[in-house]
Amino acid sequence: MKSPDLFGAIDRLPALGAPFGRRRFEVFNPSTGELLAELPDMGVEETRAAIDKAYAAQAEWAGLTARERSEMLWQWHQLIVTHTDDLAAILTAEMGKPLAEAKSEVSHAAAYLQWYAEEANRIYGETISAPSTDRRMLVIKQPIGVVGTITPWNFPASMVARKISPALAAGCAIVLKPAEQTPLVAGAMFALAAEAGFPDGVVNLVYASEGAAVGRELCHNPKVRKISFTGSTEVGRLLMRQCSDQIKKVSLELGGNAPFIVFDDADIDAAVDGAVQAKFRNAGQTCVSANRLYVQSGVHDEFVDKFVERVRQLQVGDGFDPGVAIGPLIDSHALSKIESHIADAVGKGGAIRCGGGRIGRDGTFFQPTVLTDISSAMTVAQEETFGPLAPVIRFEDADQVVREANDTIYGLAAYFYASNLKRVWRVAEALEYGMVGINTGRMSSEAAPFGGVKQSGIGREGSRHGLEDYLEMKYLCMGGI
């Protein structure tokens, strides 16, 4: 179907006040192939101009009271809530996810703005007992400075809010480069930020079809004091290297390989519900998506039968069509990856229980797929698929499954279902992951710290801890008092 009108949002995209040049790039609807927009294709010159604007605005923005920054974040939050339907339609058109999911994501983005509008007023220092009576010792916290942010295509609204709302609350000006596949909702959100009254230069947007040159400039430019990136571990490593010469602070939310474990004392129906949610939300294109489903032998067959029945009921199609639960994959490369993972598994003895193929000749739709008889030798057990593919692995005991779950360079999210309280505590503590969902398939919240360990990243987003990544601690020692 044809995408609905984008409500004039593209025409309202804010300009940087920097030269755009002549190059353009196109944004397409992955469901239909329809051309949605042509945007200026920016590079080093435009990125440097945006950084200069942010740097010029930094001192004045940091000098505002916390209440003044809070009020602007509140106003932005309210505008996003008012325009939820418009923003969700833009998001579905450029990314493909079902409209109901898109609305949920926009609401989640607004929740981050609300949270950090409140947290802006709670940046506290501390006093320290001095070793002598003529001295006073205290700690204050100040904004780190200009922040360069790079956001992914899979959650193009919530990632924008999750990254820049704590930065703005802390008193940092920002430069954002959204993913080239999904820049339109970011542009519409920035237009609303302008309406909310943010001073010129505090929020800056850079569109680019290739992120390498923009990323290098953000990392190498000394006016940028911090980089915040969400994306692949490979790119995260590259950005860390580029920031190393300046010892620039980085926050990285990178790849995952999430285990989803079902123990034999679990509520199987609840586990099936959680697995469907954790695996197939956003067509499996989430960094916290369940990538390896481990099911204990005693309940394996029951779980698989119920799980396959539920998966077969999931409707795939254009995100604007009613009843659709799974939209398209983002591009042809994603299709090729899921096909290669299935072919490798089947070639090594895996069985397709449902799905397994593309839908139609056009678009990037793929059947939600369940594989069984999976072994650790298969690619699907080792790599993140990032698609609607659920491999189910049988296991015997808790020690075994914890070892296998931890046998990865990644440590972002993990899930497990169990009833025994002793097992719940032991497994939760033993899993080497930054986030663990216990008897739930969804755990993201603006109030909770989001982030991973090992090669899944550095730092946390969300919660009060997310604000600390944008603040520098300064110790003041006052003598002669």
UniProtKB/TrEMBL annotation:
Transmembrane segments: none annotated. The keyword Oxidoreductase applies. Its EC number is 1.2.1.16, 1.2.1.20, 1.2.1.79. Keywords: Oxidoreductase. SUPFAM superfamilies: ALDH-like. Belongs to the aldehyde dehydrogenase family. This is Succinate-semialdehyde dehydrogenase/glutarate-semialdehyde dehydrogenase. It comes from Mesorhizobium shonense.
